[in-house]
Amino acid sequence: LLAMDVTERKRTQKVLRESEQKYRSITENIDDFLYTFERAGNFFKPLFFTTAVQKVTGYTQDEFLDDSKFLLKLIHPDDFHEVKRKLKALWGSIPDTTGELELRIINKEGNVVWVRNKLNMVRDYENKIQRIYGLVSDITFNKRAEEELKESAANLKKLNEAKDRFLSIISHDLRTPFSSILGFTDLLIDDDTLSDIEKKQYI
């Protein structure tokens, strides 16, 4: 008969279960989604996506896990080359382990969604990236507000330019008649030899 004290192991298992439940509760109740990729030879394979990925993209976790390039396929065609360039720069910027990208994706309904992708990379002793952790946030609302602000600023600038042009035109057009009025006024004030008939004529 062999007896072992497993109290510590049971306590550890309980703590791990509680920790996992808390982590799952947090990740499932936020609008941002988390993901993990791991190096497999010369490629990276997806290991994990939180359920919030469906809120942002419309696609399920399984669809992302079944295709290692699925996330790249959602990138807006106009942003793809720029994203590729930035990723290449991140991979090569040794010893950096963090980065951030803002890009557009096409969701399942075909709508454009602006996202911010924060990256955390784990490198080995040769500085090769072995694992990637990502946090993706939907920033569409912020981008729309930013665009509206830029549009308002541009419209305000146009209005100011139009106002300045208008004042310039008015100033130019009024200069000649005002010069005549001021000239006759000075004459009426300074010239004491004018008769009443001449004064009325000038007025």
- Biggest pleated sheet: 5 strands, antiparallel
Rg, Å, rounded: 35 Å
- Taking all residues together, what is the mean pLDDT? 86
Q: What structural class do helix, strand and pairing data support?
A: alpha+beta
Runs with pLDDT <50, length 5+? none
How much of the sequence lies in strands comes to: 15-25%
Total DSSP helices: 7
In short:
By secondary structure, the protein is of the alpha+beta class.
Q: Can you walk me through this structure?
A:
With 203 residues, the protein is of the alpha+beta class. It has seven helices and five strands. Strands 2-1-5-4-3 form a five-stranded antiparallel β-sheet, sandwiched between helices. Strand 4 and strand 5 form a beta hairpin. The chain is rod-shaped. 9% of the residues are buried.
Layout: helices, strands, pairs:
Elements: H1 7-28, E1 33-40, E2 43-49, H2 53-57, H3 61-66, H4 70-73, H5 77-92, E3 98-106, E4 112-123, E5 129-138, H6 140-190, H7 196-202
Antiparallel strand pairs: 1-2, 1-5, 3-4, 4-5
What are the salient characteristics of this protein?
single chain, 203 residues, alpha+beta, 5-stranded antiparallel sheet, rod-shaped
